[in-house]
Structures are given as C-alpha cells and as structure tokens.
Amino acid sequence: VISMVMVAVGVYARLLKHAEAAMACLAVDPAILLVVVGVLIFLITFCGCIGSLRENICLLQTFSTCLTVVFLLQLAAGVLGFVFSDKARGKVSEIINGAIVHYRDDLDLQNLIDFGQREFSCCGGVSYKDWSQNMYFNCTAANPSRERCSVPFSCCLRAADEVVINTMCGQGMQAMNYLEASEFIYTNGCIDKLVNWIHSNLFLLGGIALGLAIPQLVGILLSQILVNQIKDQIKLQLYNQQHRADPWY
C-alpha cells in the first residue's frame, strides 16, 4: 500500500510538470526517484505477500533473492562509501552541481535544495559562488537575468524576529568577497556541512542502517523457512500418494 502511494504521488508530480522542464532535469527529479523506489518496493512485497498466501515457492524465492540483493547492495554501498570516501565525495559534488544547474527548471528540486540549504546553513556545493553555474545566477557580464550574481533566498542569514521572508536577500552576493558576503548569507558549501553532519551522527546513521537491515534479514530467514516447510509438505504428500497406490499398504 505504501509503495502504491509513493508511485501515485510520483506520477502525479510528474504529470503536473511541463514536458520541457521535466526532460531537462530527469536525472535529478525527486518524482522519478519516488516512482522508481515505489515500483521496486511494490514488486518485492508483491512477491512476498502473494508467495506466502499461495505458498508459491517461485515467488518466495524471488522475494528472498531480491531482499538479499538489496541488503548486499546497501552493505556494499556503505563499505565503498567508507573506503573510497574521496570518490564518494566527488559523486555527491557532481549530483549537487547538477541540481544547482537545474534549480529553476523543477519546482520540486528547487524546494528540496532550499530545504537542504536552510537545514544545513549552507550555500552551494563547495561555496556560495557555485551558484554561478546556474544560467539565472551566472555572474558573467553577458548574463541578462535580473538574478545575475545572486544566490537563492535560502542562503540568507535569517533574523530571529523575521516574519516575512525577503526572497531578494541574495541579490548580488556573488559579486562580494567571502568576508563581505558572510554578513548576509551562508558562504560555506553544503558538501562540507553534510560530511560534518554525517561524522557527528554516525551512531544515528548506524541505528537507521541496522533498523533497515534487521527486517530484511528477518524477511529472508522467514521466507526460507516457509519454502522449506512447503517442500516438506510436498514430499509428505508424494510419499502418502505412493503408499496409497501400493497394494500392500
């Protein structure tokens, strides 16, 4: 049910977008991610549910195999991310830069970036000047945009008594140096902030990973137990049929 809701929300979000904008940022579209994850969860849980109800060995083995693959992929991603932290950091930087380029093309992506910058008190990937990669915020003299040399309002320092958000507070910030800009916006990039947050919350992330792994391992174990029970029942039925056919039985 949860997976069907995820797919429905993702499809609805995609249908609301303009075709040109949707195709431009397909790789960083949260709606697409929602649909893909929802479909995968539905297929896996469908195999497990129907396989257990109908006592279908094929579906149960598919369910167990899929859970095993997902668990191994999660384990491999964690190990590789720890061992090859520099490459993982580069991949994260690439994703963030791609999101910056398509910031104005997708409202969902825009809201996601604004939320991240506000929560982590950061701006851009490495620094606030990364926003020059966006065609609207580009700081070159040839850029005709009214937002030239600006940054999104989510980069701005907010006063404690601020009631109405000033969406133009990032105007011209890229033209300032770090010291000048730091009085008005967050100048540190989100990559360093994200890395620091991960290092500060390793126990929390470990608990979440364990919380995800335990149900998967339990599902694998229970599905294999059920498969073995079904096979035993099949052997017992075959044994009884053979002995009923025996005239000396």
Automatic annotation (TrEMBL):
Q: Does the keyword Zinc apply?
A: no
Task: List the keywords (alphabetical).
Answer: Cell junction, Cell membrane, Cytoplasm, Disulfide bond, Glycoprotein, Membrane, Transmembrane, Transmembrane helix
Q: What is its main location?
A: other
Can the keyword Cell membrane be found in this entry's annotation? Answer: yes
Please report the record's description of how this protein sits within the membrane. Answer: Multi-pass membrane protein
Q: Which InterPro entries match?
A: Tetraspanin/Peripherin, Tetraspanin_animals, Tetraspanin_EC2_sf
Molecular function GO terms recorded: enzyme binding
Q: Where in or outside the cell? A: Cell junction, Adherens junction; Cell membrane; Cytoplasm; Membrane
According to the UniProt record, one GO cellular component term is: cytoplasm
GO terms, biological process? pore complex assembly; protein localization to plasma membrane; protein maturation
Q: Which cysteines are joined by disulfide bonds?
A: 122-155, 123-139
Q: Which SUPFAM superfamilies match?
A: Tetraspanin
Q: List all membrane-crossing ranges.
A: 31-53, 65-84, 202-227
* Stated family: Belongs to the tetraspanin (TM4SF) family.
Which protein is depicted?
A: Tetraspanin
